[in-house]
Write a structure and sequence with these properties.
The chain has 191 residues and is of the alpha+beta class. The chain contains 5 helices and 5 strands. It has helices spanning 3-12, 18-26, 30-43, 50-60, 69-92; strands spanning 104-122, 125-136, 141-146, 157-170, 173-185. Helix 3 (30-43) packs across helix 4 (50-60), helix 3 crosses helix 5 and helix 4 (50-60) crosses helix 5.
Amino acid sequence: MPTADGVEAYFFDRKAPMDWRAAIDADPDAPTAAAAVRAWAVQGYGSLCDYRHKVGQLAKGETVDPRHLPTLVSAIAGWYRDQEKEATERAAQNSKPQGTVGERITTTATVTTVIELEGRTYGYRTQRRRLVKFQDTSGNVFVWFSSAADVPDQGDEVELTGTVKDHSIYGETAQTVLTRCRVAAREPVAA
């Protein structure tokens, strides 16, 4: 069930099961999370981003028209997305260059970003290119410009082996640029 439908059923559907409502009400973190989401939404009022402005405008009011409920409820996903982004950025502030240029290094890392780049054309063939960013548990950031057929998905934990090509700074984050990478899916450790 979409979140907007769940919220609408919670507030407006008299036939909604009472045990379902009781389970939602019993969550001790719900009021705190709701207040944080609302504060995040209200901060967007006046933003240059149309979406953030609209959500902020809706969150400022004490009531919301049912036709605007899905837009307002989408603030929950936006807030969670911003929380994840901020956590990743905070961890990346501790990033330090790893290895020396030309050295082959291996680390366990999580894929944080996969961006499709413009392909290179060689005659009749176009080579697919992607920018893949990884982050290890210490917050170190690794970058790989891949032309491989398969790359891991965002969120995958992998064993990354590559040759250090360069040390660079993007924004305020130090990163290690790798080339000739081998990526192996990390097997979960049995507890």
